[in-house]
Amino acid sequence: MAGIELKGISKSFEKNEVIKSLNLMIENGEFITIVGPSGCGKSTLLRIIAGLESQSNGDVIIDGREVNNIKASNRDLAMVFQSYALYPHLTVLQNLMVPLKLRRMSTLERFPIINWFFPNRRSKIDKLKESVLQASETLQIEHLLGRKPGQLSGGQQQRVAVGRAMVREPVAFLMDEPLSNLDAALRVHMRAEISELHRKLKTTFVYVTHDQAEALTMSDRMAVMMDGEILQLDTPSEIYNKPASLRVAEFIGSPKINVLPAESNEKGDIDCMGISMSLSIKDNKNEKILVGIRPEHTNLLQDNKKNCFLGEVNHKENLGSDIYLHVTLKDSQQKMIIRSNPDISFNTKIGEIIRIGFDNNKVMIFNESGQNLNKKS
Amino acid sequence: MKQLTNLGSEAGKHIILIIGAIVVILPFYLMLSFSFKSPAEIQSISGGFFGAQEMMIDRKCLKTESEGLMRSKEECSMLPIVYNYKAAFEEAPLLRYLLNGVIVTLSIFAIQVIIALPCAYALAKLNFWGRDVVFGLVIFCLLIPVHAIALPLYLMLAKFGLTNTFAALIIPWTISVFGIFLMRQFFKTVPDDLINAARMDGMSEFSIVWKVMLPTAIPALLAFAIFSVVAHWNDYYWPRIVITGDQDLMTPPLGLRMFKSDMDGNEYGPMMAAATVIVAPLVVAFLLAQRRFIEGITLTGMKSR
Predict the structure, then answer these.
(1) What residues of A are in the B interface, CB distance below 8 Å?
(2) Is the distance from CB of B51 to CB of B80 less than 8 angstroms?
(3) What is the domain range of residue A347?
(4) What is the pTM of this model?
């Protein structure tokens, strides 16, 4: 177990800067998720931590030890790959034995023929087998030990890949989108399983994903990464409720947050397209600003109140527990997505004009460059 | 109407393919057929595929003695097929040639693999300065015909005193540019993650080549094995240059020369019998490995995982 520290990491491929002077402190035993859209540099960052890729600048520090010039195999990290990357020609048992043999036995003990001269080799292998069996018990893959990866389903392969990382008892686990090749139901199931594994092992997990649901549900802290930078690093609930910027707010949350243009007057009161929001800010008076309202903080109004938007329903998504209404606002032609209670909106038809209310306390305010102004107010 | 034209074009395709097949198979057919027939039948082109298999008299046998007596005609009469194959093994040390062929081709293949696999791995999966130039040179070397460099090669071997040794037969072929190219193309299809996983597991780059890349590349390796073994088993040109006279070093094709008609007319029957014996191992090996061979050539034997 160990903490991992990244100091001023940057990485360029030729002239293309993928990671820009990035700092990150990962605590010992923490489950941290790096989430971001594809191409944001998150996988590259993970590979730099692993030592599979070398950084252009900066230091990687694992357990207080600088490892810049230490090979991937000597960093004592384990990695789970998106494609699982199991050895196709070996059985599951052999796959799980490989990392153990490589670490616990000397080169000579592993060398064919020469290894006959090591009398305690057998007992050593038996010991390794025991720890493999233990790991496979935890992951419930004992019945698969004799099979080859080609004969396993995606979920089973995924478990074996985790097992291969686990048997070594590494100081930290690195996971590169380990669930993205699974079908939706299995993904939800494995999410819980990996979280449970983390609680059991209490080892540092660094988990890279583009799926915000994985990030929100599994991690102690999550880092939102875009264009080679970490935009925000905090607990999932903080990031969801208090995004540091508009980009974070737009990336995290599904369906996407509604962003509407607004203005603040001399007193700091906010007016959004003719609707006074009964909200005010101290700074940024008399300025054009943006307000963000998450779909779940809107509601369908049945009576005529003052503070509401009028809009025409374009599309209706019924998820059973909720109904999402895609709306075009009447005057401004702005698009919005509204979450509503099925009891209220099951009768709503496409083309209908509806009144949309919102929860004043949950409205986020951003300045034009996308900074969150809520914290200052 | 449409069906008719379809049928026509299908028939056309098949006729062309059949003609091609006949052109390829006919020499083998003749070889096999001649190895069954008596000299008279070969000369008169009669007797169909198998020949009549009438008893014939071995004239060489008549000239030999057993227990102080000349052999009788009865003792020396035999089936033409028996005569041909017996002669093939008796008149030249055919088994010795076959053994030499096995030693030479297997050594060449083994060393080729030992050299080509790490090269192909480096060219396919490692990033180093000048990699593309090196690969360009590999491609360039594919274009150099063996005959163009035969003389300098021979001189070099002669200077080292290696002519008339197995080394002369093996060393010039140990670096197979074709092998490097073929394996590199195959390694390109092996996912990077698999190699990275091996690195994370603690494998050295050499272990990765032999313990991860080699097992996944078996189909391609088999294809290369057939190319390599066939080429060097059948090679007549190079052994002819570096082996002069020493029977114990001769490879099978070189051995065939022993049957060229010396004193008594033609020796077609035994010669074709010897040729059949020489070709047989290759044909059998190909038939056994046919499916994997084609898989390897089309490089689809492995799925991405």
Answers:
(1) 47, 50, 52, 71-74, 77-79, 81-90, 98-99, 102-103, 149-150, 164
(2) yes
(3) 255-367
(4) 0.81
